[in-house]
Write a structure and sequence with these properties.
This protein is an alpha+beta fold and 407 residues long. The protein is 36% helix and 24% strand.
Length: 407
């Protein structure tokens, strides 16, 4: 992909005091300036180490449709804000699907849909800040400045539009103020209701459902032994290659699978952000051979499931490795939320609840913008109805609750 050259700096105010620059690598900002913006306990996907590893290990690179075009807000030499951004030559690895929009633009309107400007973390359907702002500054003002920069930037970059994925409510407010179209989706998330133990969590289910969950746990644990490892333990035990091979085995199993990550990527993040890595590894009890794993990230008060890999299928093993062990870990660490990723209706009966996700979109072509706005309005109504109708997985309120919200 060879999009037009981005302007190095564009004024956001008549006096030019506040400007936005476009960087072709997160290293162009530098680790320490970035960390001051991200704060002490950011989402793991917003850590400098994560974004840098994606670029340096061949994952988020132009040849695969990801040209880094990070936005930096400055006042003179002072960095005020940052947004991870990429010029995209396709819609792979995004999880907010706009392939229909691309076909409509190209087939019906006869305009190019690519390149487009994407503000997101590659391959990561997890909600977190997209408009990072400096501590001690007015956050609403700076978010608004970054949001207002998007329409002129898309024009100067030759992009069809700007798309901001998996936004927070605060970012969404700024983006809506800049005229971007709001889109809603649904994921299934687990929320910590102050559980002290895993048994307290299980106690919220009906007796019949609780028996079934315990049966799933027992069946998987009968033939496998589970262990939880941070990044340092993965490297110390020489398991980075095993994690990658298990990830690759599942990617290659399905026709829609895509290998987005390299072996080197897993090695680098285990080395540079070991405390944020959680690998749940399942070993065969008889041979001690690793047969399955879940690769997750911890940070910002949350747990985020990303990759499941298995050499062989065993009854209920996926549920135990990817969900139940994650819930155990979240309870033990006092984490507020567990986002296990996109899709998977089977998560619902296991304690995960329908949750609205948000994105924001600017399209330069007025005809395309009107069609997308109409679609998103209807989609938002459908999402609202779906979430309202979604049955609670629980039969009982949390321990100590007055009963509000119980099914």
């Amino acid at each position: 992909m060879s999009p037009p050259q981005a302007p190095r700096s564009s004024p956001l105010a008549p006096d030019g005091v506040v400007t936005v620059a476009v960087l072709d690598a997160v290293r162009g900002l530098g680790a320490e300036p970035y960390r001051r913006l991200a704060g002490g306990d950011p989402s793991p996907f917003l850590r400098y180490e994560w974004l840098d590893a994606l670029e340096q290990t061949g994952c988020a690179v132009p040849d695969l449709g990801w040209l880094p075009a990070h936005l930096v807000l400055r006042r003179g030499d002072c960095v005020l804000g940052f947004a991870p951004a990429y010029l995209k030559g396709n819609s792979d690895g995004e999880f907010v699907f706009d392939h229909g929009w691309a076909r409509f633009a190209e087939d019906r309107l006869r305009i190019d849909y690519y390149p487009k400007l994407l503000l997101a973390v590659p391959f990561t359907p997890a909600t977190s800040e997209r408009l990072l702002v400096a501590p001690g500054e007015d956050p609403e003002l700076l978010r608004a400045a970054l949001a207002r920069a998007l329409p002129p930037l898309t024009e100067s970059l030759g992009a069809s539009g700007a798309h901001v994925l998996f936004t927070t409510v605060e970012d969404q407010r700024a983006l809506a103020g800049a005229g971007l179209i709001e889109r809603h989706g649904v994921q299934l998330h687990w929320r910590n209701e102050g559980y002290r133990t895993f048994d307290e969590f299980l106690a919220r289910f009906s007796s019949k459902r609780r028996v079934q969950l315990k049966r799933e746990l027992a069946e998987a644990e009968r033939t496998t032994r589970l262990e939880r490892l941070d990044g340092a333990a993965v490297l110390r035990e020489g398991l980075a290659g095993v994690v990658f091979e298990l990830y690759l085995a599942t990617v290659e199993k399905f026709p829609w699978g895509r290998q987005y990550l390299t072996r080197r990527f897993f090695e680098v993040v285990c080395q540079t952000m070991p405390e944020s890595v959680l690998v749940v590894l399942a070993r065969d009890r008889a041979s001690e051979r690793p047969i399955a794993m879940a690769f997750s990230l911890v940070g910002g008060g949350g747990l985020y499931g990303r990759y499941w890999g298995a050499r062989e299928e065993r009854p209920f093993l996926h549920f135990v490795v990817c969900y139940y062990e994650g819930v155990r870990h979240a309870i033990e660490r006092g984490l507020r939320v567990f986002e296990p990723g996109a899709g998977g209706e089977h998560k619902g009966p296991r304690g995960f609840e329908a949750t609205v996700t948000r994105s924001a979109h600017h399209l330069r072509d007025r005809r395309l913008a009107a069609a997308v706005a109409d679609f998103c309005q209807r989609e938002r109504a459908a999402v609202t109805e779906h979430v309202a109708r979604a049955a609670s997985p629980f039969a009982h309120p949390p321990a100590g609750s007055s009963g509000a919200g119980g099914a």
